[in-house]
Amino acid sequence: MGLRVLSTFILLQTSIHIVCNGDMLKLQLRRTRNVVEETPSTGNTMLPRRISTTEEPTLENNLRGKPGQGYYIEIGIGTPQQKLNVLVDTGSSNFAVASEPHNFISTYFDREQSSSFQDKGMEVHVPYTQGRWDGVLGMDYVALSTISNATANVHIACITDSDHFFINGSNWEGILGLAYDEIARPDSSVTPFFKSYHEQTNIDDIFTLQLCGNNDHTDSIEMAGTMTVGGIDEDLYTGEILYSSIRKEWYYEIVITDIEVDDVSLGLQCKEYNYDKTIVDSGTTNFRVPITVFNAIVHSIDDATEVTVAAEFYTGEELMCWKENQTPWEWFPTMKISLLSEDTNKIYKLVISPKQYMRAVDDGSNSSDECYKFAITTSTSGSVIGAVIMEGFYVIFDRQNKRVGFAKSSCAEREATYLTPQVQGPFDHDNATDCAYHRPNTNEDTLMAVAYVMASVCAVCMIPLLIMLVQCYCRNVNSKGSDSNHLMGSF
Q1: Active site residues
Q2: 91, 100 contact by CB (below 8 A)
Q3: Taking a C-beta distance cutoff of 8 angstroms, is the pair 89, 390 a contact?
Q4: 40: cis peptide before it, omega within 30°?
Q5: CB neighbours of 415 closer than 8 A, spacing ≥ 6?
Q6: Poorest-confidence range of 330-344, 361-375, 475-489?
Q7: Mean pLDDT, to the nearest integer, of 369-380?
Q8: Which residues contact 105 (CB under 8 A, 6 or more apart)?
Q9: CA distance 376 to 288
């Protein structure tokens, strides 16, 4: 969020078309008649249902946003429904909406006006790096847009107080966390939105995001994108989808095996990329990496760039600007992020264009210049594949098969730059599983056992020390008694 600047996704009421066929629900952003195709399973992998079109579609994006402020989606809450926009965030698990007025938002969820709202009597506190929000937990019926038969009764955190959470002019009033139970606040007893939505509407446990960004260079122009639920839209990508297994169901955690700049590896040990995790997070704007990785990327980009770049550009203190339509993309190298495949003996590569790691921003001067900010930043908690990377790809969150997939986005085909993002592979790779960070087991039972062991060790160590102290005390007493008798006898 602003906190981590959140990227989000919004479904606009006028642009959502949902198809229900048996247990299949699809949020479509195209005016077209859709056919759901059943696909047989292969082995232990349930193949996602694919949605095809039978006539030429007209693109209608159901995700909106502003540069640096994320993508958002429209929802309906309560009885009768109240319409709000919420950030779509794959890096958190709480569904939270404003429930009190705030200077930066135009509307909020009025609990008193919903006959179906249930107060759960639990407080929720969620801190971020640069902000936080507090609220109370409840439950109510929520629909994606106005589809009444796609309503689910879900946990809602009603935000009553916040600091540096809402963004003035962002057009969203809450956040839709799409990750797993483990990172939900205040604890994992809170069921995340998508889990409830999947279970109650009988859709497949899968959603996809196509973030197309903004080709313009002003913050006043909206970004666009597409979200689908319950299936894969074949019109939103080209080529093959390549998948990475989700290592653990908390964040969408995958494994980076290498990063290249201008086709040259950074040469780091692959564990450096994943310390202490690597996640796919639409709610983070930039590509965030550990400091060692960041320094290596900057050094390699600087060496491969055909122009002198100020050090302050890489630290985010300065922008780089060119006249309109004259940005020399060919001067800057490509990057490649290698990811561990679901077949652990293979990897595949995301080819990242300079337009992804240099993010278009407004320089505040009202000029027609094209200005950019470096979109790679440091992290103290592992690597984050944020929105700037996702904007080149169609990303599949295939929860039912515990994997995340990447394919070349169809919106990338519309780019006019000299290079568009690509997915390459798969390639053979030995020992790629060694790249993952293996965090120590810190569950409560283990910590309690360790505490008892340490207390026992300390107690055993204290016994000899106490014996030594007693012996020392006795010697001192005896010594004082001898000296006193000797002096008395001398007189």
Answers
A1: 89, 281
A2: no
A3: no
A4: no
A5: 215, 355
A6: 475-489
A7: 94
A8: 98, 166, 172, 173
A9: 6
Residue 43: pLDDT band by 50, 70, 90 thresholds?
A: low
| Whole-prediction pTM | 0.80
Label residue 450 by pLDDT band (50, 70, 90): low
Give the type of residue at 450. V
Candidates 396, 376, 380, 397; CA nearest to 388 is: 376
- The first and second tokens of residue 182, run together, are 């483990």
**What is the SS3 string spanning the chain?**
CCCCCCCCCCCCHHHCEEEEECCEEEEECECCCEEEECCCCECCECCCCEEEECCCCCECCCEEEECCCEEEEEEEECCCCEEEEEEEECCCCCEEEECCCCCCCCCCCCHHHCCCCEEEEEEEEEEECCEEEEEEEEEEEEEECCCHHHEEEEEEEEEEEEECCCCCCCCCCEEEECCCHHHCCCCCCCCCHHHHHHHHHCCCCEEEEEEEECCCCCCCCCEEEEEEECCEEHHHEEEEEEEEECCCECCEEECEEEEEECCEECCCCHHHHHCCCEEECCCCCCEEEEHHHHHHHHHHHHHHCCCCCCHHHHCCCCCEEECCCCCCHHHCCCEEEEEECCCCCEEEEEEECHHHHEEEECCCCCCCCEEEEECEEEECCCEEECHHHHCCEEEEEEHHHCEEEEEEECCHHHCCCCCCCEEEEEEECCCHHHHCCCCCCCCHHHHHHHHHHHHHHHHHHHHHHHHHHHHHHHHHHHHHHHHHHHHHHHC
- pLDDT digits over 218-244, tens only? 445 678 898 989 999 999 999 999 999
- What distance in Å separates the CA atoms of residue 157 and residue 140, rounded to the nearest whole number? 10
Q: What is the C-alpha to C-alpha distance for residues 364 and 69, in angstroms, rounded to an integer?
A: 16
Read off the pLDDT of residues 14-41 as tens digits, 9 standing for 90 and up.
333 333 333 334 333 333 323 334 444 4
Torsion of CA 384, 387, 391, 394, to 10 degrees: 70
Which residue matches tokens 């995958």? 254
CA atoms in the 13 A half-sphere facing the CB of 150: 25
CA 442 to chain centre: 23
Q: Is the CB of residue 384 less than 8 Å from the CB of residue 287?
A: yes
How confident is the model at residue 62, as a pLDDT?
81
Contact 5, 69 (CB under 8 A): yes
Contact 53, 235 (CB under 8 A): yes
